[in-house]
């Protein structure tokens, strides 16, 4: 079972999430929170597998709550899936930097949200390709300095790994990368794991940020 904590200040949205998740045989909603402080408190108390986090909440916003649960200084991070609206995507970028494992839009279909929770629970980052491309394109100045310098860490990658790394940064899923390179998804998964290990990155979110900061993609 995947234990889920639902955090949103709107009671109707929380109730909808709880209802949808409760219908899934592998999801167990272990708690709810209506503000950021409660989200942090309940997450630390319950230690869920995935926290579904809103951005705009009272007392403490979702970005800071995410940082306290999954930030770079957290020794035992909890996986956070941010769910927000498209016109707040600059907040989403900040949430990803704060340690979120991924994000979805609130107008996503229920099946997308459920699959997103499962993806994050497996330890993979959820980067919806279309949204990722738009996000990086519109807020690329926050990721990439005016004169991006190649990161020395990229030198440890093979030519094939750099190719896969570039496609990850462009927001392609494993299936799309497999199709582009004409290899199996299992092979892509192996490449992704190897790249993250070599570059000491936690997930694909950090990979996207590094690739753009280093100028590997534009």
Automatic annotation (TrEMBL):
Source organism's superkingdom?
Answer: Bacteria
Q: Where in this chain does the record put each Response regulatory domain?
A: 3-121
Return the InterPro entries for the record.
CheY-like_superfamily, NreC/VraR/RcsB-like_REC, Sig_transdc_resp-reg_C-effctor, Sig_transdc_resp-reg_receiver, Tscrpt_reg_LuxR_C, WalR-like
Question: Which CDD domains does its entry note?
Answer: LuxR_C_like (cd06170), REC_NarL-like (cd17535)
Q: Residues in domain HTH luxR-type?
A: 150-215
Question: SMART domains in the record, alphabetically?
Answer: HTH_LUXR, REC
Task: Cite a single GO MF annotation.
Answer: DNA binding
GO BP terms, alphabetized:
phosphorelay signal transduction system; regulation of DNA-templated transcription
Q: What is this protein called?
A: LuxR family transcriptional regulator
Q: What is the lineage of its organism?
A: Bacteria, Bacillati, Actinomycetota, Actinomycetes, Micromonosporales
